[in-house]
């Protein structure tokens, strides 16, 4: 009987952690500023904080947008040239449920060619063109879950609102499977005892 209760508690804990605690967020990208600034609002249940935000223009290719080092407070990575890069990361955050993280200072340019690398600093990516084809925003939560939303290919002067529903970390799925396995084991053992 004790085993049955332990199995039920383990399975309930796994299911609870994979559903109730998974983080959610909404992202607003300011089109009036050519999607160079925006905000991320934590819509998770209390107790789940946003700890990291990654705004990624993705795989570099001809006609794809890229950032030039300017005034952003994040960490720049995935460089194409000395001052042009594709990924901006804000790490070490603690955005509580119901609160918003605002970012700005990104400077959009356009990749003319990847090889050899040529960037046109005077050109905003072509409205409605392929410049957003690889872009995404990822949000990481204090419960170990994370989610990614891909940007919509549209004019850069139009705002975007994206929703993220996080995916629990692999360990959560392992705990859920272990709990379900224990439930199955207990049910089979109970059948054998009858």
| Biggest sheet details | 8 strands, antiparallel
Shape verdict: elongated
What is the beta-strand fraction?
A: 35-45%
Residues in helix, %: 10-25%
Structural class: alpha+beta
CA-to-CA gap between the ends? 14 Å
Order of helices and strands: HEEEEEEEEEEEEH
Spatial extent as radius of gyration: 22 Å
**Could you name the ranges where pLDDT drops below 50 across 5 or more consecutive residues?**
14-19
How many strand segments?
Answer: 12
Mean pLDDT across residues: 85
**Number of DSSP helical runs:** 2
What does this protein structure show overall?
- It is a single chain.
- With 194 residues, the protein is α+β, with helices and mostly antiparallel strands.
- Helix content is 22%, strand content 36%.
- The protein contains 2 helices and 12 strands, in the order αββββββββββββα.
- It has helices spanning 2-19, 170-193, and strands spanning 24-29, 38-42, 50-56, 65-68, 75-79, 84-95, 100-103, 108-113, 118-120, 136-141, 146-150, 160-165.
- Strands 3, 4, 5, 6, 8, 9, 10 and 11 form an 8-stranded antiparallel β-sheet that branches.
- Helix 1 runs antiparallel to helix 2 (170-193).
- The longest helix is centred in the last third of the chain and has 24 residues, at 170-193.
